[in-house]
Design brief:
heterodimer; A: 189 residues; alpha/beta; Rossmann fold; 7 helices; 9 strands; 24% helix; B: 228 residues; putative n-type atp pyrophosphatase, domain 2; 5-stranded parallel sheet; 4-stranded antiparallel sheet; 25% strand; globular
Chain lengths: 189, 228
């Protein structure tokens, strides 16, 4: 079962940031459930074999006040998780993955298509690609980020990371808009 | 999920099926304070739906929601300044907190509206974003929208002009999608639509008189001359 964690604070944003991901997964015929982060249970996390944390709108940072809901990404719990389930964080989802590992966010605005340079193969992406960006905040490129993650792609901001020890992937851009194959590839990791 | 008070919004409204369906989502989840109607003088506007746009205010009256009309010459990028002006007015007059659009696939349209709303510290909602476009046509039908095709702009599409979106139309569009590689919701500019009725209309509209015209690239447009 794939668990999609919806981080949108407004119900209407589900249509824009969650439903497109569900549509991609539905077409693969993989079973999935979607939970809002405020309703997430340990059982949801335990029962899943793969997790996707969605993004949300430019103005929505409510999720960052409730990081306790994402303890399942903490080092302590990951060490004891024998399932080693893959996790993909998209935009705000990537920011949560990084915040939970001690990284910091800084202001950084990108809206629309930008060219990201991939230094190595990342979920099927390689070389220079147009990616769809929609963010006001970015993960700071500092020692905390580089301690936990390999950086795979950048514009002037870090665009794609993978955890050094776990199958945890983060993309700042929105693969549910352009480069949908990233999500399909993640389902095969 | 926590229940926040409903946000006050304005909906970018052209009178076509996409903004019409986006409005139904907006009415369900937000407090819609007004519609914003952009009237472009440029028939090939990059941003705004143009055929028969003058009738959008009649549609807005049939819906019963206040509206703001903003004229624009429709010059690429400069029309965004006019859109910004209309959104600022909606923010001042109706205290809106967000904008709702009917964008489906166009990164060009969506990213420009996102930029304006972000600059004005407003939320932006695109409830049809990336949706399956045949499913969108089916949803319009299931929700009892009455939509007519008023413009077709591509080889092989001529016979769609004047048709109502129904099951036969959807089958025909599916066939054309495979054969001509068209965008089945028409957002690529292949066709334009006009909403005659919707679940939130207070009265159904009827076209009393119309004429057909052909643009310089061979597109067929039904010009509505009388509507009641």
């Amino acid at each position: 079962m794939i668990l999609i964690v919806n981080i949108c604070n407004n119900l209407l944003h589900y249509q824009e940031f969650v439903r497109p991901i569900e549509d991609i997964i539905r077409n693969t015929e993989e079973p999935f459930i979607t939970r809002h982060y405020t309703e997430l249970t340990s059982k949801d996390v335990y029962d899943s074999h793969r997790i996707i944390i969605t993004g949300t709108s430019l103005q929505d940072f409510e999720y960052s006040k409730h990081l306790d809901k994402f303890k399942f990404i903490s080092d302590e719990l990951l060490k004891n998780d024998s399932s080693k389930k893959p996790i993909l964080g998209i935009c705000g989802g990537m920011q949560i993955l990084c915040l939970m590992r001690g990284c910091k966010l800084v202001k950084g605005l990108e809206i629309g298509l930008v060219k990201a340079k991939f230094s190595a193969e990342f979920l099927g992406m390689n070389g220079e690609k147009d990616v769809y960006s929609l963010h006001n905040m970015v993960v700071k490129k500092d020692n905390a980020l580089e301690k936990h993650f390999h950086i795979y792609a950048s514009t002037k901001y870090v665009q794609a990371v993978k955890d050094k020890h776990y199958k945890i992937y983060g993309v700042l851009f929105h693969p549910e808009v352009r480069n949908k194959d990233i999500i399909r590839r993640f389902l095969c990791v | 999920m926590s229940i926040s008070p409903k946000l006050k919004t304005a909906v970018l409204f052209s009178g076509g099926k996409d903004s019409g369906l986006a409005l139904s989502y907006a009415l369900e989840h937000t407090d819609v304070k007004c519609l914003i109607i952009m009237v472009s003088q440029n028939l090939e506007s990059y941003m705004f739906h143009t055929p028969n746009i003058k009738w959008a205010q009649v549609q807005a009256k049939a819906i019963g929601i206040p509206f703001i009309i903003q004229e624009t010459k429709g010059v690429k990028e400069k029309e965004l300044k006019d859109l910004e002006k209309a959104i600022k007015l909606a923010k001042t007059k109706y205290k809106i907190q967000g904008i709702v659009t009917g964008a489906i696939e166009s990164v060009y349209q969506a990213s420009r509206v996102q930029t304006i709303t972000n600059d004005l510290d407003l939320e932006c909602f695109n409830p049809l974003w990336q949706c399956d476009q045949i499913e969108l046509l089916k949803e319009l039908l299931d929700k009892k929208f009455e939509i007519i095709i008023i413009g077709v702009f591509g080889y092989g599409l001529e016979k769609l002009i004047g048709k109502t979106i129904d099951r036969v139309f959807i089958e025909e569009v599916k066939f054309l999608k495979d054969r001509l590689k068209i965008n089945p919701a028409g957002e690529g500019g292949e066709f334009e639509s006009f909403m005659l009725n919707a679940p939130y209309y207070t009265k159904r509209l009827e076209i009393i008189k119309s004429t057909m015209t052909v643009d310089k690239e061979g597109g067929k447009i039904m010009i509505i001359e009388e509507l009641k």
